[in-house]
């Protein structure tokens, strides 16, 4: 009798576990889905300021090592054509290249929190990889429905000695495919300073991919829309691709 | 070098479906120098042409046309204090309208190395306002990040890993043994980047009209740089140790008779720059640099006209020994940023305060207005001038 009860308990726990993953398991799955081994994309970035003024940028971007390394090169507008950013070690090391002066500059960590080309994305926001896994502890706040999809509401609290990019992030993750649809970023005063909306999620080469991402700065009331114009996950980085040599090409 | 470059590269450019881009820049300046006020400026058109016939070849040509207006001839003697014994002559430098191939180069990328030949921009060093390891260019403190003109050179880049590389630069002269050589090893150490540099220059001539030449027979330089951060602040340092063998029998002039008098002694000196930067939470960016130049003059009373000419002509990175450079920038409004430059000569207590407003008026058009106020006695480096105003409009395409 005791043995039957134990088997029943284990089976129930296993079923429960299969149905309700832990917060960490959800974050692990999100990280895996959001960080394919490699990618190459072309995109546009539209900045709308609080006064309604608009600027449009276009860029090419390469990522490798599940987001550990990336290289972004602007193609438009003409004034910044050729400016490029190389990020290694999940954006812990960033170099920028200015074609007019042919100079490469290493950015210190203070600069990583700055707006990239005046947009609402910081350099850190653009760096992918395992930041959510390594720099935050997660917990499930509950389940909700967003745009007809059942989602988990995950709270991620930054681990102080890991220098997290934000003290707190609340993330809504679709239960159907573990893809995040909304992220609220909080500052030190626990104010929801920025919100990222991911939409037009398409399956590209078996990876769900948000073709549109809108980052809104809730303090300055500005927003930046990042659109993916072209993307492939089949790209393989040649040896030495993520290097200063390639940054200057 | 110019001619074979043009003949070799232009036909390739035509058939390689090049990309065209560039900018138009117009500048208007007012400067108060003693009791005189000067108006001047320029209109500049730069066309950049780039072609990539395949993944291994990049061909670049930059054509620059510049037309000056207003005051286009400057008397160098207006920019140095009255030493009492200088000739009554005017030492005039004219700025003629120019149209030139600023850069014309081809970069060949092989799996193990890149080879670039032709007239190309070379910008060594990590300093913002000063670069002790840069033997090719000189910077203007009021605009240190302005693009440099091209250098006729052969350049070899050998990557030795993601963060390490070896660079060899040869600036060829008519006689091969007079060619300037520079060798750089770059590497990474934790979150720091470093470089080691060695240079050799044979016979560098800095011609000063009427007064003659400041000739360096041979220059050897070893140096290096380090870039990283501490407690979130960006930190960098760059240094060089130089050995100058001066051209004999040159020459400190007897300015009364305008004839060479005594040879300048050989010089061994060190230059270094230390810098830091930080961006505060309110987006205010701060940068500061301290520069020491052992080739500069320590005391004001030891200055001679030749020191001014060496600094103005690019033979020395500065007139005196110790300088400070401070820069702050804040994106104050949508597409409008306010910045301030302050630089000072710590040896003669003169300096410049230059506030600037930059407005990204349209997507590819920037308008900047810079004022400059100079302080110091009338016989000091920056105190010679009183104030200036600069309006610059630039449209990229």
What does this structure look like?
The complex is a heterodimer of chains A (249) and B (397). Chain A has 249 residues and is of the alpha+beta class. Chain A has a single domain, classed as outer membrane lipoprotein receptor (LolB), chain A (Clam), CATH 2.50.20.10. Chain A has a 13-stranded antiparallel β-sheet with strand order 6-5-4-3-2-1-13-12-11-10-9-8-7. Chain A has five helices and 13 strands. With 397 residues, chain B is mostly beta strands. In chain B, a hairpin with a 2-residue loop joins strand 2 and strand 3 (57-70). Mean pLDDT of chain B is 87; it is low at 249-261. Chain A binds chain B through residues 49-51, 53, 55-56, 77-79, 81, 88, 92-93, 98, 100-103, 105-111, 113-115, 118, 240, 242-245, 249, and chain B through 21, 23, 58, 109, 114, 121-123, 126, 145-148, 157, 159, 161-163, 165, 186, 191, 193, 227-229, 232-235, 277-279, 281, 283, 331, 334-335, 360, 363-364, 366, 396-397.
> Strand count, sense and closure of the main sheet of chain A?
13 strands, antiparallel
Content of β-strand of chain B: over 45%
In CATH, the topology of chain B is named Porin
Number of domain units of chain A:
1
Tally of discrete structural domains of chain B: 1
Q: What is the level 1 CATH name of chain B?
A: Mainly Beta
Strand content of chain A: over 45%
Secondary-structure element order of chain B, N to C: HEEEEEEEEEEEEEEEEEHEEEEE
Fraction of helical residues of chain A: 10-25%
Helical segment tally of chain B? 2
CATH architecture descriptor of chain B: Beta Barrel
Structural class of chain A: alpha+beta
SSE string of chain A, helix = H, strand = E?
Answer: HHEEEEEEHHEEEEEEEH
CATH architecture of chain A: Clam
Give the spatial strand order of the biggest sheet of chain A.
6-5-4-3-2-1-13-12-11-10-9-8-7
Distance between the termini of chain B: 30 Å
Poorly predicted runs of chain B are 249-261
Radius of gyration of chain B: 22 Å
Regarding quaternary structure, what we see is: heterodimer
Specify the CATH class of chain A: Mainly Beta
